[in-house]
Design a protein that fits this description.
single chain, about 90 residues, alpha+beta, two-stranded parallel sheet, 3 helices, 2 strands, about 35% helix
């Protein structure tokens, strides 16, 4: 299953658990080595999320609900670690 499929499946299962009175925050940590501006990345991701939301079959009463009725969406860049830092795996 691709990432979009996993997100779609998770949302379908969890729709019953979400209450528009108590939103869930979705935090996307973006790791991009191409130096694309964060604004461009979030615009593309937001469109993809809206497309996924539109395709999810919704029960009666939820058909007209927006993604933002259930979720607060936040984005955070993941910056690479400074070259002076490294992690070493020590077998146990």
């Amino acid at each position: 299953m691709d990432d979009a499929g996993a997100v779609r499946a998770g949302r379908q299962v969890n729709l019953r658990l979400f209450d528009p009175e108590r939103k869930t925050t979705l935090l996307f940590v973006i790791r991009d080595k191409s130096k694309t501006p964060m604004e461009n990345l979030t615009t593309v991701l937001e469109k993809d999320l809206q497309d996924i939301w539109a395709k999810i079959p919704k029960p009666d009463g939820l058909v007209d609900k927006l993604l933002t009725d259930y979720f607060d969406i936040e984005y955070a860049p993941r910056f690479p670690l400074p070259s002076a830092l490294s992690f070493v795996h020590i077998p146990t």
